[in-house]
Amino acid sequence: MKSMRKLNKAGMILSMVIGMIIAACMSPAAGPEVVESDEAAAPAMQEVQSTLSIVQERGKLVCIGNSQLPGFGFLDSEGNFSGFDVDYCRAIAAAIFGDADALEVRPATARERFTILSSGEGDVIIRNTTWTMSRDTDLGMNFGPTTFYDGQGLMVRKELGVATLPDLQGASVCVITGTTTELNLADQFAAAGVAYEAVVFEDFDQSFTAYEEGRCDAVTTDKSSLVSRQTTLSVPSDHVILDVTLSKEPLGPAVRHGDDQWFDLVNWVVYATMLAEEHGISSSNIDSFMGSEDPNIRKLLGLEGDFCSKVGIANAGCFVDVITQVGNYEEIYNRNLGPDTVFDLPRGLNSLYTDGGILYAPPIR
Amino acid sequence: MTTAAGTPTDRSVLPVTERYTLLGWLRRNLFSDLFNSLLTIVAVASIFIVARLILRWAFNTAEWGVIPANFNLIMRGQYPAIEAWRLWLVIYLLGTTVGLVWRLIVGQFNTTARILVAIPLVLMLIPFFSMGTRLYLMITAVASFAGYFIAGYLPIQHRGRAASYFVMAYLVVMLILLRGAGADDGPMPPVQPILWGGLLLSLLLAFFGITLSFPLGVLLALGRQSKLPAIRVMSVIYIEFIRGVPLISLLFMGQIMLQLFLPDGFPLVDRVLRALVAITLFSAAYTAENVRGGLQSIPRGQYEAAQAVGLSTYQSTIHIILPQALRAVIPVLVGQFISLFKDTTLVALVGIFDLLGIARTIIANPDWLGTQQEVFAVIAVLFWIFSYTMSFASRRLERRLGVGQR
Amino acid sequence: MQNIHASQVRPPFYRDERVLGVFSQILVVVIVLGLGLFFFNNMITGLREKHSVAITFSFLTQTAGFDIGESLIEYSRERTYLRAFVVGLLNTFQVAVLGIIFATALGILIGVMRLSTNFLVSKIAAVYIDIFRNIPLLVLLIFWAQGVFLKLPRVADAIVLADAFYLSNRGVAIPWGLPTDSWGTYLIVLAAGFIAGAVLAYFLREHGKRTGRMPLVTLWFIVTVAAVGLIGWIVLPQPMTLDVPTLEGFNTQGGKILSQQFMALLSGLIIYTAAFIAEVVRAGIQSVSKGQREAATALGLTAAQTLRLIIFPQALRVIIPPLTSQYLNLTKNSSLAIAIGYPDLFAVAGNTILNQTGREIEMFTMIMGTYLSLSLLTSFLMNIYNRRIRLVER
After folding, report:
1. C 263-302 residues with CB below 8 A of A?
2. pLDDT at A4
3. Which residues pair with residue A241 across a beta bridge?
4. Is the CB of residue B210 less than 8 Å from the CB of residue B334?
5. Domain extents for chain B?
6. Does the beta carbon of A294 lie under 8 angstroms from any beta carbon of chain B?
């Protein structure tokens, strides 16, 4: 009995200690910031803190991204994130901090991403996210410039001999839940009068595993993602992406409604990469432009007019950091999706307007 | 059906000699009558079929290469390889602490102790381990020996208290080692809990889930039995609410909605910690119901006797009622702990890479497509080993404390 | 007791248990309510300020726009979110009801095997219980879905049994009844059969009570219903035709398709829960004292009679409460369907609808409310049942 009592007491103390330790183990921001936010608590009540100041205080950008889509956002087995979308996260971090690595990628499923953004857990979504009206309005998002013009496609096994949508009558189609693709699939198949079985999964991994094993006859998502995931199938050449486009999918960054300064910042970082390509400025040759006389280039590189301060960044050369550390649009594209990668995705619509594409960045002035 | 209840064979009336001959044993247990013989034949046949299926798969079909290739991931998830020495240190210290505590509490080097020490040594036999890993396992065994011997020379009076201090110190050191401290380029850079993964994370979630939910559950059980109506009602509402909803809904809420409930600018709570809180709150309600069963089994006389000798409500609860009530429900409590351990797998559904979450990433890796059976078999065996050990230990403890024998 | 204690010496107010009791209650209530209000207020202001959304359920009547793979009721993308919610709910019910039936059957079988005097049979049951009680259900489910059902042959190479059953990694296609015009009439006939059977059973029971020789009431009931059903089937012009699946195009057509996800979820739940039910059954049977069995044998009852009339009714009283909680567990565990892509309540409401509408608060209120009322209802019915069997005892 006596030892039991002692054990009891020990147990209580033990659990209290553990509780305290765990409390102390909260996110790294917990330590210094708790004190700070206590002081700032009173004014913060009246005025919502701006996203930029939160990010600056935290010392890094939290970017909501994908971890399962090679070429766009992918977590390799060493735990590093890479891809087209991730590079845009890096670009924003470079603009704010002058350090592209001041970044935490928060991998999220299609389901979670908007909630995570609205709850303030992340600062920006760059996760092959389609710009739609209801997301813009109902969900309280603001969509930045489209970084990648895409369209929804279908991938099937070659041996099925499918070429058009009606050929898929009675087929099973794998689709990822919580996406515009899920809705487009329903719309387009209904419009074409094609009956099908929707097999709904939570993420790319499950969806493509099921497709690979033959659970579905077709798998649908954005064409770029199909290209990307095709390379991860066991025999990529056994599969073909149909020449059918189910929808328009403009993919780009999204931020919360109501913080215009932050929205502007994200917009202009994206535009800066496009403008850099337009002027032929890349990470390798940027130094040679530092003496440029072209007023457009001088403004982009912060040599004339303090445009970075207009989006709340003190460093006049914020776009220079973006270009040197991450690169212009072409570099970002080619590094992740271009001819030297397994995907070898043609630029198509994603060329500058001068090259027949629709990338058209407004001028900096 | 009929054999179960039908044949009233009482072993004690059989001649003693028959019990010890193989033939007699076979006759009595397998071929006592026609029906029984038929059952035996069917049973042997099905065992043969299942065993052949499993063995054929394990030795012919299965491609085990996926396990050694991803072994580190399975064990520690995304915990940086360069910081792995901290995990080994945690394991050595665990060995030492177990050794110390064993000497202080149990006091002798009995069979169980030998088995415990043998574990790292047996693990050394795993064929794909590198020599380094084997060496580290050897050190673990040595460390636990060392703990045991050191404890013998320590001038300690209150052995129980000293043991609990050692355990607490270990936990603090363990957390500091895992979490790291100081600068990112310092000797022990911080490692975010979200990077803790694999078996490491599953075990940590289970351990802290159990240690945190237990006191909370006891409090809730006492609250439900309380004479104070407000406290009783709130405990009942809490318990019934939590028991009425699936754990997954709590986990989802914790992951995607928690920030909605907190004021602006509140620091982000780590995602692993959120999952831990959800698991703890969930499990506490079930623990509370189990403890309540124990509380109800305490005869009224115990309460009255405690009051008669002048103990306050608090004193009688702590010293008289709880120790008896908890002892009565050890088996169900352990059952609850086991199910908490199994429930930690649900965190894989909210994007945390515990053992199951890691398994899912491995089978999605282009290099290891189609290895679902192998990977999940290994994961299942790992979970089974830990759960079964817990239930085995609980049965031993039950027997030692003589629960249900009075 | 307390009165004597209190009237002898009145302790100072800070040690008076009654004062302390009231005080601590007020304290707890204030803390809990305060915290609740704090969270609620944060949520409301957060929702309003951050993205100007108010809490409303009006979206439920909007068009859903997505398809659901399997549904018990008619559903298409033009239907409302509410309809989609109901589809999910019915799918949960379907899995839960079938799971409960099969898990009980398997659980009783294994529980009884565990008590068998045959050493091997008993050990097989013990191994089964020890294995499946100690593996997480989620691991089992995913293994079952991805390691077993997904590894079955493709639909084109499906395993065909008797030209009617197709087993492939899309699921199992089985022949299924297709109601004809006379189906409605047949249902009425069947209902009449049930009533007739019930009336007969009532009189048989009364008769049995009077004479002391209880006939096999249940058997008579079943025979009556079956007889009426059979006669109706013969007399009416074929109330139902058999729809046999065939392999056409991409999938099997006709019959009923039990999808891979459904099969994986159901079998995982059954195998897992049966291990727990087996333990419940074993404990129940063992709780009946040996004397009861010996007394029954002494009275000359056969083994089967002993089991049916003596052991089972008594064991049932011990079995029912834990069995109910196993049923509830199975129902709640069916929410793990989300991991393998079966559209149950949680997957449809907490995943798809939530995703498409972004209404977290509303959807979680609905989901948790549904599960909660389900489990409170079950506990309520259980309490009534418990009271009834307790009355029978005395």
Report:
1. none
2. 43
3. A155
4. no
5. 18-61, 80-190, 198-406
6. no
Q: Closest Cα to residue A72, out of A57, A60, A89, A56? A: A89
Distance from CA of B21 to the nearest CA of A (A): 46
- Helix/strand/coil percentages in chain A, nearest 5: 45, 15, 35
ipTM of the complex as predicted: 0.86
* Residue A196: DSSP 8-state: E
CATH 3.40.190.10 in chain A, residues?
48-147+255-365, 151-250
Pairwise CA distance, residues C232 & C187, whole Å: 9
Contact C307, C297 (CB under 8 A): no
Select the residue of A169, A190, A199 nearest C69 (Cβ to Cβ).
A199
Long-range contacts from C119-126, C-beta under 8 angstroms, 24+ separation: C119/B29, C119/B30, C120/B29, C120/B30, C120/B39, C120/B40, C120/B43, C120/B44, C120/B47, C121/B3, C121/B39, C121/B40, C121/B43, C124/B43, C124/B46, C124/B47, C125/C278
Tokens 């209904």 -> residue: A190
Q: What CATH number does the domain located at B198-406 have? A: 1.10.3720.10
Query: Count of A–C CB contacts within 8 Å?
Result: 111
Collect contacts of C179-182 with beta carbons under 8 A, ≥24 apart: C179/C239, C179/C240, C180/C237, C180/C238, C180/C239, C180/C240, C180/C241, C182/C236, C182/C237, C182/C238, C182/C239
Give alpha helix (H) positions in chain C: 2-8, 17-51, 81-114, 119-133, 137-142, 183-211, 217-235, 260-287, 290-298, 303-305, 312-333, 345, 354-357, 360-393
Tell me, what amino acid is at A144? G
Look up the pTM and report it: 0.83
pLDDT score for C53: 64
CATH classification code of A151-250: 3.40.190.10
Class for the domain spanning A48-147+255-365: alpha beta
Tokens of C160: 């065909």
Residues in chain B with CB shorter than 8 Å from the CB of A109 are 351
Closest of C43, C362, B250, B347 to residue A118, by C-alpha: C43
Length of chain C: 394
* Touching partners of B (3+ C-beta pairs < 8 Å): A, C
> Using alpha carbons only, what angle is made at residue B301 by residues B300 and B306, rounded to the nearest 5 degrees?
105
Radius of gyration of chain B (CA): 26
- Residue A255's Cβ-count burial label (10 Å; 0-12, 13-18, 19+) is buried
CA C382, CA C320: separation in Å to the nearest integer? 8
Helix or strand holding residue C14 (H, E): none
Structure tokens at B398: 């039950």
Amino acid making up residue B106: V
Which A residues 126-165 touch B at CB under 8 Å?
none
Return the CATH fold of C81-175+244-393.
MetI-like fold (1.10.3720)
Would you place residue C50 in the very low, low, confident or very high pLDDT band (cuts 50, 70, 90)?
low
Phi-psi region of C258 (alpha: psi -120 to 50; beta: other; left: phi over 0): beta
Nearest to A105 by CA among A50, A67, A52: A67
Q: How many inter-chain contacts (B to C, CB under 8 Å) are there?
A: 192
**What is the CA A198 to chain-centroid distance, rounded?**
26
Sign of CA dihedral C326, C330, C331, C335: positive
Element (H, E) at A70: none
Q: What is the mean pLDDT of each run of 10 residues along chain B (406 residues)?
A: 44 53 77 82 92 91 86 86 88 90 84 87 87 90 89 82 89 89 78 86 94 94 87 90 92 82 71 91 93 86 85 83 86 90 92 88 78 90 93 83 54
d(CA A118, CA C52): 11
In angstroms, the CA C166 to CA C252 distance is 8
Say if strands A254-256 and C159-161 run parallel, antiparallel, or are unpaired.
Answer: unpaired
Helix (H) or strand (E) holding C166: strand C165-168
